[in-house]
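A reminder before we start the practical. When you read a complex entry, don't treat the lines as separate problems. The point of joint prediction is that each chain is placed relative to the others, so the output describes one connected object in space. Small molecules and nucleic acid strands, if listed, are placed in the same frame. In the example below there are two entries. Take a minute to note the order of the lines before looking further.
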Amino acid sequence: MAVRTKRTNPTLVEVAKHAGVSRSTASFVLSGRTDQRISRDTWQRVEQAAKELGYRPNAYARTLSTGVSNSILLVSDYIATTSTANSMIAGILDAAMETRKSVLLAETRGNADTEHRLIADMLSRQIDAVIYASMFTRGVELPRELRDIPLILLNCWTDITRWPSAIGSVVPAETDAGRAITELALERGYSTGIAFLGDTSKSPYNDWKPLAFAKRLEGICAVLGERGLPEPELIPVGDWTVQAGFQAVDARLSAGGGLRLLICANDQLAFGAYRALNRAGLRIGRDVGVASFDNTDIAGWLEPGLTSVTLPYYEMGKQAATILTDYLAGDDGDAEPEFAKVSIPMAIVERESL
Amino acid sequence: MAVRTKRTNPTLVEVAKHAGVSRSTASFVLSGRTDQRISRDTWQRVEQAAKELGYRPNAYARTLSTGVSNSILLVSDYIATTSTANSMIAGILDAAMETRKSVLLAETRGNADTEHRLIADMLSRQIDAVIYASMFTRGVELPRELRDIPLILLNCWTDITRWPSAIGSVVPAETDAGRAITELALERGYSTGIAFLGDTSKSPYNDWKPLAFAKRLEGICAVLGERGLPEPELIPVGDWTVQAGFQAVDARLSAGGGLRLLICANDQLAFGAYRALNRAGLRIGRDVGVASFDNTDIAGWLEPGLTSVTLPYYEMGKQAATILTDYLAGDDGDAEPEFAKVSIPMAIVERESL
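Here is the predicted structure of the whole assembly.
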């Protein structure tokens, strides 16, 4: 059993008393002011007293006088608790640490009431700016509480003309990625029997419309069109899971041949596709090429290794936080800086499936 | 391009001026004080002015007067950014929301210098308490900065006699889980050829010693001992990955038969074990039973479905935050409450592999 006492942060007056100096002298020393004549001995006595009592300079008091809290609020739907998008947080924390901002976390699970309540509560704690993030790329309706606080959109966007406080958005460059993976496949000799697996009308969460599929398809079609090749066959799925991938590809293979390249909308679908291709006796990376998006751990676990396009979550988080902290550090209150619209490149990790 | 202005939170004086009342009257109204005689008309004018100007009551000012910030700091090594342990955050956020605490996030990546710096910085912002969390269960050395702030250990422990400010620890009940999975396997008729896959001398991160394997083994041995059965064969691995699981089981099968039940230390190892068993023509769940720990998505993706023991991360996070907020809400400053030592049960999710 441990003996415990509630923490009491000593006051400035207590430090002053302990050091045998006036409150204002203690204050000058502990705030590092050098415009006052204070003897070296006094200075040391105050510092020693602060150390002995465990005094912590009070950032809250500074906030009241400066109006700057050095805190950023991260509002997200699920990114802290989903296994892929959470890397955005690592990027945000790294950028925040560089500029000594603290990060507060609010997760709404897509519930509008929760969102209003959490944000109102958080804003009452004084924060300098907000990162509004989504677990997958989609359009969002911002809550009214964020109307007049500097705001950056992470992995989402909205009609910014209605949101003058929005200073930028950071999303993955999905269309470019669709282009790049198609170009790589063509280089590897896959120019016929091209299919894109993952067309779904079903929304995975809360009726949100993820836009990754449409944007990737745009890139794929652009490259095929430039080469005079037909658009890809679209293989629909129930959702983006291993089971759905297996069923869709299994059914497609039963319906007849001609499949030479399968671009999968995520690694889970590719996992299911592998199973169906294996069952049909087709050699992956030889009879049929497979490529995918997300580059999760799965891609490295499969045999043969799955060529997959990285979702640059860490970089997205870091960029968003950096744009925000740069903005907060700047003195452009009267200027009208451009809305920063940033697309982060998605690298392809090449393995043996293509 | 959006027109933006830096947010300026209106001051109390501005609200008072807008309402045509004195600063102190505005203050009384907005702090909800009912011990002053203020006319209903004045009350409404102030509230209207606050609304029009977008005035937010200042939690920082309240902190200065009450000494309570209603903020909790979550210090972790990697839990915000690893794909499994991050569910602890969902539990923490849910418990924090119930009591209207805000959660600040600091991630140290196991670097002691980063940890000292981040914590010192965070503590200067006034927080009421700290959750100190690890991505996997291990003993930790707490940084000295946390000496005198209420603290709960999440998924880790330390010598609490040296940490009087620690009020509790929350860990998964690994030994019980080892017992339970062994009892289930015996019920299913697997009583010979029992092996435990995952013995490793190599530490996965920063020389940390994860203790899950030893504690699970303790539970397994206890049940086997009670039934008069021999201890399990230990199959060593390089690390807890799919590839290591495949190699270890492949080598073990080449060395000879007799394997009837494989308990894997995590789902990735089980994934690799499946591959080796398939290659050897052994039917999983018939010729050889397989069970595992973690119950990640993988368990549901494999064929046959993998019986796996859940790591109750959400519940662990929620319990830790609840113990902390209960402590903060209590008025036991002079009492000496027991150190709360909580083990969260680990449920078995039964599928077809056992």
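Discuss with your neighbour: The domain at 12-57 of chain A is CATH 1.10.260 (434 Repressor (Amino-terminal Domain)). What might explain this?
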